[in-house]
Amino acid sequence: MSLTQKVAKSPSYFDAILPLICLICVVASSVYFFGLEAMSGPLQVGILIIIMLTIFILLKNGHAWDEISQAGQRGIASITGAIFILLSVGALIAAWNLSGTIPTLIYYGIKTISPNWFYPIAFFICGVTSLSIGSSWTTAGTIGVGLVGLASMLGLSPEITAGAVISGAYVGDKLSPLSETALLSAQINDVPIYEHISFQARTTIPTAILALILFLIVGVISEKPNVDAALLEAELSQFEAIYRISIWNLIPLLFLIILSILRIPAVLAILLSALFACFMSIFLQPDILIHFAQKSFNETATTLEISSIIKSIWLVLAKGFSIETGLPEMDALLSRGGMHSMLITIWLILVAITFGTLVDEFGLLNKLVTPILVRAKSTPKLIVSVVLTALGLNATAGDQYIALLIPSRLFKKEFTKRGLENKLLSRTVADASIVTSPLVAWNSCGAYMAAVLGVSTLSYMPFAFFNILAPLMSVAFALLFYRAPKKID
User: Fold this and answer.
1) Nearest residue to 209 (alpha-carbon basis) of 395, 469, 471
2) What pTM value is reported for the model?
């Protein structure tokens, strides 16, 4: 141990609470000043400033710069795998739009809608879509926008529909191996992704069933609108005019499912599926590929050379898929993905994990959480403490990544000390942090959902049944099943 480490003193309560108070102020002010644009850079800059403040506190307490720097490096190293997976997910979304996989999922989803069962079907469709692509934001920003708009045209409640869309979207955010938050939950708690998902399903599936029942009840007791069949056909015809809609377009999805069943490492499975979808687009959507090349490289030929195909696929994977149909709503729906689209999220994760690592490794969070841990003598009480901490951070810090990362860092040592498996912590944190983020108006997720769906957070919040029930289900499991899984020596 170096001399600097010997003289380093423990943080005071003021040292421990000051960075968190400043973090709350920075997050709140960035959302206030920039709204949805806060996540595009201002929020990250604000957190970097808080990191600098934290470093000054650590230096004041006698910690060496090298010691602080190495801690930050360890934090970033812990999410290296998740970063590569995030880039792969961005490429996959773009590739699936190019191959027609996502449009076909949306097409068949709309085709199955009946106004009498609109809300549970909306929940189901968004659940299936989010499980397929692993993104609640993409699901809400694509098929969710269409469902809310369709609900308004059919005389149904946009508020209930938005609640159903968000509920379904976050089912996949918790259970899909493509979900960045599911991947991060597993990664930060040192749990293999498929093991995390399997354990996560024990609380997620019952919650989803309860949510589906509630949407069925709401659908039955709500007023029935008159059905306009022509409107539904118009929605479907837009997809048919752009893509060659066929069941064959779902082959890339089947390929990914097979790779997942074979337990291929997630990053390899996702990248392979993205490349496979791009290859299949040559046969499934040649007109789309030609249109993209003409738009991107000023190609004029009606058939593409091999070099043009390679350039198009390369660009799709890097910067995402885009299309100009003459219909702004359709263009916004289909122009998605690319590794580039994940860079802002990666930036946010990098600064959040660095901040979380510093306040954790140097005892700032431990100073505040010790009184909680002293009172949480049983496993159920410990799990309730994790849930309340995650909920509190979601409401105060205003970002789901912070609410996910900090409790994981905060309680990980205590779970290990008590012989509890890491997957119990990863599941509990996910139940409390990921799905509750869109319920907070000033949270980045709540602001995003309100903006893209056109329904205020307070209006859809009572109907986001899955999101409300998820942390309650986690607490119920903790209270009812006292024998939590233990580590096997």
Assistant:
1) 469
2) 0.73
